[in-house]
Amino acid sequence: MEKLKRIFAVDLGATSGRTVLGALEGDQLTMQELTRFDNPIIQTGGHFYWDIYALYNQIITALKLAVEQGYEIQSIGIDTWGCDFALVGSDGGLLRNPLSYRDPHTNGMMDDYFANVMERDEVYRLTGIQLMPFNSLFQLHAMRKAQNSALAAAEKILFMPDALAYMLTGQAVCEYTEASTSQILDPYTHDLNERLLESVGLKRSQFGRMVIPGTVIGSVTEEIRQITGVGDIPVVAVAGHDTASAVAAVPASDARFAYLSSGTWSLMGVELSHPLIGDESYSENLTNEGGVDNTTLFLKNICGMWIYERCRKEFTEKKSHGELIAEAMQVEAFRSIIEPDDASFANPPSMTEAICNYCRKTGQPVPQTPAEFCRCIFESLALRYREVLGTLKRLSPVQIDVLHIIGGGSLNDCMSQFTANSCDITVLAGPQEATAIGNIMLQAKAAGMVKDVWDMRRVIGQNTSPKQFRPQDQAVWDNAFARYLQICRA
Questions:
Q1: Are the beta carbons of 315 and 321 closer than 8 angstroms?
Q2: Is Transferase a UniProt keyword of this protein (predicted)?
């Protein structure tokens, strides 16, 4: 019996991961989730780490399962969140589990870097990247100041998807879209900036060769073949940054769109043919990240469903998303409003208490029930989206006619309608699996099955049906936005 050929996608988020099998036959795209698993942050010794060995083992387990179920794997692609990296020693082994971007070791380090190494506006001019404390540049600065022994011994520094690909192939690369999140990449030369590397005591040779999405990194090692039973299959550098893979899967027919990749983070932006780096983008702290086919993702990172998920873990009575959303729709609208990107919501011991403190500080009613917390979070996010979309409309050379919401957040109909209402724009929600779809389609591109990102989107559009939301209650949301600005921008 002939085995079923499948593309193998590894999609790792900051709270969970999954493996997905995909097939493209003509214009027919099929997908099935193979495994799903948690990706917890490990706290020890005053630091927060990712367990890269556990993630590797999840990939191995899924590959074995695929073989056992009779599938022939054609290729493997890995996407992850941005900024974080692993360190490799001179003997080729990993030196330590990677630090998480939520580790407190970067507290104050961004300002320290600006005060003692290079000025803030100069860093932005060189990279076009939103200045955030957990960007790789400031992580490296913090590690250097702390005399981190693993960094001192590092022969190679590999961003997360590249580190996992290295564990599968033995080949060290630096995938372009993932590297673009680091605040070390030059968006014009498409390579790492040596001046910024030198500022944290590093050399270009400590990073792998730069590769673009759709490049074959190498084949899996003989060890992997023996452990899993797979053949001599290639590992493909997809858009290693999950946002870039997700945006590549936006089912748009033309360039007049904005996107909102909604998950732990919300990333709202537009796709441009070139970086947009100037005084206004600097003052608004907008970012120019790498996209597929030499595009630039001009966007803003917004604290997304992280706030909701953290609150949900604290609620005493455990309820489904649907139950919480339904209850939230029954309580008073705009009772309390927060600024989702306020520093107090980054990683507090208690998210519900952080929200309560913010409301007390700003003279608002304090949420008392899970429904009130959820309503506050959803409405506040929608109002923040309106603020960011207004900035994008003002600065972008591309006309924005529609907003595509992709990722897990696209399943939240309440949030999609709130966003349409707040932003006064038609919202198309879906696909939920955008990141995995982009990952699979970029592997298909590497195999010559599709030509470019627009050919990918044509196929994706034929295989997905986004849900449409039109704006409603405009006067109500206009008043709420004025109140949001008064509270959050006071």
A1: no
A2: yes
